[in-house]
Every structure is written in structure tokens, then in C-alpha cells.
Amino acid sequence: MAQQHLEPTNPTARPVPADALAGYLRAQATEFLRALRLHRETGPGPNGAGAHTAQNAGGGEPGVDAARALRRAARRLSGTLHTFQPLLNAEWAETMRPELAWLSGTLGLEHSYASRLERLLQALHRLSGSSAFPAQSAGATVAVAAAHAARPAGAASAPDRGSLTVGAAKAGALLDRQLTLARTRAHSTALQALGSARFHAVADKVALLASEVPLEAAAATADLRPLAAAAEGRLTDAVAALPLVTAGHPYNAEALVHGLAPDPAPHPQDAPWHQVRLLLRLHRYAREVLAGDGAPVDVRLLAAGQALNRHRDASEAAAAAAQAARTPRIAPATAYALGVLHADQRHEVEAARYAFQHSWQKEAVGTRP
Amino acid sequence: MAQQHLEPTNPTARPVPADALAGYLRAQATEFLRALRLHRETGPGPNGAGAHTAQNAGGGEPGVDAARALRRAARRLSGTLHTFQPLLNAEWAETMRPELAWLSGTLGLEHSYASRLERLLQALHRLSGSSAFPAQSAGATVAVAAAHAARPAGAASAPDRGSLTVGAAKAGALLDRQLTLARTRAHSTALQALGSARFHAVADKVALLASEVPLEAAAATADLRPLAAAAEGRLTDAVAALPLVTAGHPYNAEALVHGLAPDPAPHPQDAPWHQVRLLLRLHRYAREVLAGDGAPVDVRLLAAGQALNRHRDASEAAAAAAQAARTPRIAPATAYALGVLHADQRHEVEAARYAFQHSWQKEAVGTRP
């Protein structure tokens, strides 16, 4: 299987001692504390001054960067505790993991809503084919543009011709209202979480972890590779269960099946892909643990992971469009635009599966000796 | 260019005399008259007893088969007159062609509406993922199923859960109403056409053609191949102007651009593809003329043609869904379903372009020496 071909878990390579695990956990704990300090210094973050630039990836807003770094470290700690749990103090790890998962989940929600809105407004922009939309603007600008887009065009042509574009604008305004509300709530929840006793207990434990990792006695002579290989095995098993033959066939129209079914959100067919996304992440973290500081970036794993992120984002965006369409008393033109948008995002789901299948096949071929 | 590789127009092969053209025209004229006789014997066709089975391809309904054969012969006569016009009596050909085009256009409309409805209802069925829909039924059954689909499911779940599926059913009923009306009108128009003096004049001319083809004097020493090659040249030029690089890249999301633009129907980006579809047909008929009775079926041309037919059908179905969404006073759930349906059919347009690109590339490779 694939785990025999990947360098870090190759059984012919040398054993990896538990020191590597301890070093990794200490480094992530340190990173967590650094991000937390930065977060406290830079204020409440995205819902403060730069409310609509949370999705400004790689951008200079320190609050956003700190929140992202905090989530990143929390995910890595949680994932590593999961994969290498047999080598760690069981009680400690079992208490720690759900707390870290709660934290990264709570902190991630606000960002999710912001990027979902961004994705949906950009899709509306693309679907409207209107030059009134700025091509690469941040959320707020697009939302405003969406609300006013092509009204001149609509006014210039026959009234029924303009109605669908007014529909796109209204759909954009509706999504903006609903997702901004959800995001504001998530922001408050995150702020409350960061001020809670529960959070301080986690932070204290992470601070302890930064200086001392509670390894089991057995860890002294252990090799990390079998546990990393087991994580990879869970991934490859889950990938093998995916409908990859269908996914590799372009335009299979699979993702939109049940697009008008009674309960279109969440899509049950997406669940195995979401699961693979999580397992791929655990595999990636295990590779980082084994490789230490010199972890080579596997571009294929990266591409596969990005495809699965896109899959998740499009799946959730499609659900949000379907959800918005259930708002009482919306205009038919708004509902029509939301229907087009929903289908467009399900199309994106299908495209992401195709991209995943593609990068995954490449990996299997590329790493064979 | 490709015309040098295809057997019938290969300049190294032997000249093809005008006899082949005369023979082909006589054969098509005879076929036209046979179909016309059959049509008169079997009655008014699709809108008679079997009103909802017009799209029952290959099926046993004689009226439908006769109408199809009539259109088929009229298209071949018209196309052949176009491609080989320099060898035919100019005045005769110039009078004849628009009449044949009028006839095949008029006779084809009813079938178009019927198959458009069939396509849209089957798509609604697929999108509803409902087992209440029979998988492979003809129009009427699907329409009835669409109108009632999943109402039990909707009733069993929460009201808002059911609304979208009720939307699909209502969308199906609305499309059924609108396209059946259009089809009924097209049927009347076709019947009127078949009883008109204009039609009888065409039929008389075709009857004359069946016995004598009005060739120009120059035809006696002419070679048909340069004119066939010119038809192929027009095709390859038009194909070269298509955005095939984009089309060959799966999930390029090009077909749904402007999906919410002020005037979504007809889609201007579809026009060059429709044009290629017509030129491909002319090329195919020219090949038939040159090859005579032993015309080998070029499976690649066939696949390319089928992809372009699918492109045209999906394009028109998408426009019909968008048009239906402009019906005043429809429910938001209906409009939502029509939006999903529109996007689904635009997705089909994109898939058809991908399929065309694929089969066309195959052809270019496959016929190179």
C-alpha cells in the first residue's frame, strides 16, 4: 500500500524515537501560546475594525493571523494526540483532546461563515457576468456591489429581462444578511470562549505541555512509525471506499443528484469525503511529527488536501444557498438566483472530487518506486 | 488539414463524377416521397392518439417515424443543394432550398418541444432523487410523476423540508403546461403546413427531382470532391474558432457564466457551437454523396455530432427553464427549482462541449496517416 512508498513511514527507513513526538508537541504548544499572546495583544480580531476582511488570507491583519495560528496549533495538537495516543499518558490525552477540538471548532466558525459568504458572493458575481462587480474584492465591497449590481442594466432593458439580475442582487443581500448574522454570533461565542474558565484550563495545560510532554513509560523504546502508518492506513482505507471511478469521470452529474430532494442539506453523499479530509489532515500531521523540522512538503498531498477543502467549502456554500431559499416571503427572482447558486456550488463539489481523484492518482503513481 | 485524411475527399483518390450527386438527390427525393405517403396513411402523428410519445425514438409509432423520415430527407436534400449548388441549375436550387429549410424547420418544432419537455422532466426526476419517478418513462408519465412527486415525502417531513420538492413538482407542472402548449401549436402549424399550397409545390418539385436532377452542363465533367472538401474546410475553420482548450478542461464553469445575467436566453456563447453543428451535418451529407450506398459510418463524426446535438438540446432546455422562471406569480419554491434546473442544463451544455472536444481530438489523431 501507499504507506510503504512514503519516505517518513517507510519500514526500511530507520526507527523514529518518541523524542520526535515530544519535540513536535512542545513546538506546537509553544506556537499555540505565541498565537494566544498575539491574539490578546491585537484585540478582538475580524469583527473589530476590519469586519469584512477576515478572509483576507495572508494579509496583514494581526488579529486574524493570530486566530488562524491558534486554530492551526490546536488542530495539530489534537490530531497528534489522536494518532500517537498509545505513547501518551492516556488520562491526560483523553481529557485534552475534546477540549482542543472544542477550541478549534469554536474559533473556526467565524472564519467559516466569512469565507462562505465570500465564496457565495463571488459566485453570484461570476454568474451575473457583470462588470459592475469588482473582480477580486473583499466581502464588504462585493456585498455592496451585489446589492446594486446591474440595476442600471436591468433598468435599461425590459423589466422582465432585468428581474433575474435583480434576483442575483437580492440573493446576495439575503446571504449577506444571514451569514453576517451567523458570523457575528460566532464571533461573540469565540470571544466568550476565549474568556471562559474552560479556555483557561486548556491554555494552562498547553503551557505545561510546552515544557513537559507526559509520555508513557513504553514510549522510551517505541518507534513512531507504526502509529503513523496506522493513520495512513485509515486514510487509504477511507479513500478506497470513495466512489473514485465516478469522480474521475468528468461531468458525472453525481453531486447534484438529490439537489431538489426534500432535505438537501447536509448532503449525505458528502460525508465520506469530509471524513477523508480529516484523515488526510491526521496523516499530514503524522508526517510532520516523523520528519521533524525538515518535513518536506508533499505537493501531491497538499493538492489532495486543497481539493478536499474546496469540496467542504462548496458543499457548505451550496447548503447555505438552499437554506436561504427557505426564507419565508422571498421574491421568486431571489429564489431562482439561489437555485442557480446552489447548483453552481454542487457543480463545484463535483469538480473538487474530480480534482481530488486526479491528485490522488498522481500520488499513487508518483511515489511508487 | 483533416480533409486530406478522410477517405472520400482524399485528393489522391479517384475523382467522383456528378452521377453520384444525381443518384444521391434522387434517392433522398424518393425517400421523401415514401415518408410523405406513409405520413398521410398513418394520420396526424404525435398529437393524435399517442400524444405523449413523440420522443419515443426508434419506437413503433408510424406517424412519428414518417415525420422523422420526412425531416431527415428534407435536411439531406437542402444540405446537398447547398454544398453542390455550383453543379446544379442555379435558379432551381435557389428556389428549392429555402422551401426545404422551411419544411424541415416547421416539421421539427413539435419534436423539439416534446424532447425538451422530456429532457427537463427527466432532469427534475434526477435532481429530486425520488424513487417516485419511473426511471425511463415517456413524457406523459414523467409529467404526472413530476406533478405529484415526493408529496408523500414532503408530507412526512417538516413543511419547510418538503417545500423544495413541492417546488420541483410545481416546476415540472409549469414546464409541462408551457411546453405542451408550444408543442400543440407547433403541431397545428405543421398540419397546416402539410396541407398548404406551399407544401404541395415543394412536394411536386421533389417528385420531379426523384426522376430527373437538374444538373448544370458543367457537371458532366465535374469532380464532386473539391466542393465536398470546401464544406469540410468550412467545418474545420469553424471548429478552429471554438474555445476548445477551455472546453477540454473539465469543470471550467464557462457555460454557466452569465447564468444570472439580465438576458440569459439565448446564450450568445452557444451560437458558434450551434453553427459547427450545422456545418458538421453538411460535411456528413457531403460524405454520404461521395461514398454512395457504401458510405461507411464514421463513428467519430457521429460522436461529435451527438455531442453537438446534446449541446443544442441542453442549451434550449436551460433557456426554457429560465423562461418559465419569468412566469408571473410563481411560488419561490418553483422558481428555486427552475434555477437549479437551469444551472443543471447549463452544466450539461459544458459537458457536451467537453465531449465534443474529446471526440474531435480523437478524430484528428485517428485519421492522420
UniProtKB/TrEMBL annotation, chains A, B:
Coiled-coil annotated spans: none
Matching InterPro entries: CHAD_dom, CHAD_dom_sf
Alphabetized Pfam families for the sequence: CHAD
Top-level taxon of the source organism: Bacteria
Domain CHAD: 14-365
Chain segments carrying region Disordered: 40-64
Name this protein carries in UniProt: CHAD domain-containing protein
Organism expressing this protein natively: Streptomyces viridiviolaceus
